Amino acid sequence: MSKPNRDRLAYGLDVFTAAMQTFVRERLIKKYPSTWWQDGVLKALTDERRRDMERKATSSSHKYTLLEPVDLARVVRENYHTAFSEVFPERNPTVALLDLVVDARNRHVGHSFGPSDVDSEDAADALRTMSRLLLRAGLADAASQLEVIRREVLQPPEEPPESPVEPPESPVEPPELPVEPPGPAAEPAERPVKDRERPVVEPPPVVELPPVVEPSRVAKPPPVLEQPVPQHPIVDDVDTPLTVPPSATVRTPIPSGKENEHEVMIQDVNVLNARIFFDNYMYVGGKGMVRRPSYFAPYLIVECENSSSVPEAGEAGISWFSRVIVVSDIAVPSLKRYPDGVNVPERLRSEFLWPRWRKGLDAIAARARKERWQEGDLARLYFLDRPTRLTQVIKKRGWLPQIPWGFGTTLERLKPGRKLRDL
Fold first, then answer.
1. Is the pLDDT of residue 88 over 60?
2. Does position 166 have pLDDT exceeding 60, yes or no?
3. Among 252, 246, 248, CA closest to 229
4. Phi-psi bin for 196: left (phi > 0), alpha (psi -120 to 50), beta?
């Protein structure tokens, strides 16, 4: 009998928690050598959890083993800039993944009620999230253990097929052979007529089949990425006020795969931003968003689905993506004064997409003035190529109601994706 997915997920959470407990402790000791528990852990917890920890932490050498996934998430969140930014390059995606682990534990393992077992996809998603965090933390051994568990969840061992049950035959007593006195050898008896008339069936010829190759072992060719359009030079970040620095160089797209988990930036988009995306090939965000994505895929929210202003949406979800040509950071006060307060470099104005981008800048600057964006904020402008439609719509399916800033994936995962959590 195969092990329930709930048990597999619980074991995976134990592996993840033990590895992260040691990792968090080591990172905090580097920052707070003698006060890591007080300054790094207890200050990050809620008052109730802090009192619980102080009551249980009787051994100074093993306090860290009391940290649950929810505690680890809080400690990393509160100490990100001081202890964890060197390991996890971006705060928001890291915190979002840790929160998903906490949610998986609370929903599937932390209680005894609910379904009798965990859905295979839900268990595999949680294990994959934990594995990604461990890999980013440099804990490859623990991550490999979780991958083994995840494969077991997705491909449980097949039970041998049951042989058909045939009704038992009635026992037949063998006939008694007549006992005859020894004498001359008798002539061999002829076969019964029934046996003589039975045709002789020749065995079928032996056909040698080609060797069977498991699909998972067939080497897949690397994904072929679209080459950058020659007339679209990809320029490094343009500094405020939209001036290309002298050291700007041509930037090639980052390859897909594990090397770049944020090759495609994904963000929720409302009706106003959707029109800027489809009409003007632009998107605006804050400094917490991915700084150097190669592509942008808007998640058109339900408001877009219900609005006649966005007929391209069809239905809520991710159904379009676009190549990122230029990323530019600009201070909000300068953006509000556009076009007077901004010096657009010749390299941007010479692009054949500039007429669209210029209208996009007009619309974004109007938003900044109308919505009274904070003067001290920074706006991150994404100048995009013509949008391309996906062959399917990628849905949230109740997962991650609001996409956090910095959320991303690879183009290889995006194109065949069906659900956001698969990315």
1. yes
2. no
3. 252
4. alpha
**What SS3 string covers the chain?**
CCCCHHHHHHHHHHHHHHHHHHHHHHHHHHHCCCCHHHHHHHHHCCHHHHHHHHHHCCCCCCHHHHCCHHHHHHHHHHCHHHHHCCCCCCHHHHHHHHHHHHHHHHHHHCCCCCCCCCCHHHHHHHHHHHHHHHHHCCCHHHHHHHHHHHHHHHCCCCCCCCCCCCCCCCCCCCCCCCCCCCCCCCCCCCCCHHHHCCCCCCCCCCCCCCCCCCHHHCCCCCCCCCCCCCCCCCEEEEECCCECCCCCCECCCCCCCCCCCCCEEEEEECHHHHHHHHHHCEEEEECCCCCCCCEEEEEECHHHHCCCCCCCCCCCEEEEEEEEEEEEEEEHHHHHCCCCCCCCCHHHHCCCCHHHHHHHHHHHHHHHHHCCCCCCCEEEEEEECCCEEEEEEEECCCCCCCCCCCCEECHHHHCCCCEHHHC
Lowest mean pLDDT among 2-11, 15-24, 209-218: 209-218
Question: What local confidence, expressed as pLDDT, does residue 405 receive?
Answer: 77
Question: For the stretch 301-325, what's the b/e string if a residue is b when 16 or more beta carbons lie within 10 angstroms of its beta carbon?
Answer: bebbeebeebeebeebbbbbbbbbb
List the structure tokens of 31.
């920052």
- Do β-strands 318-331 and 388-394 pair in parallel, antiparallel, or remain unpaired? antiparallel
The rounded percent of the chain whose pLDDT value lies above 90 is 25
Q: Are 73 and 88 in contact (CB under 8 A)?
A: no
| Among 138, 18, 123, residue whose Cα is nearest residue 69 | 18
Per-residue pLDDT at 45 exceeds 50: yes
Question: How many whole angstroms from its chain centre is CA 142?
Answer: 18
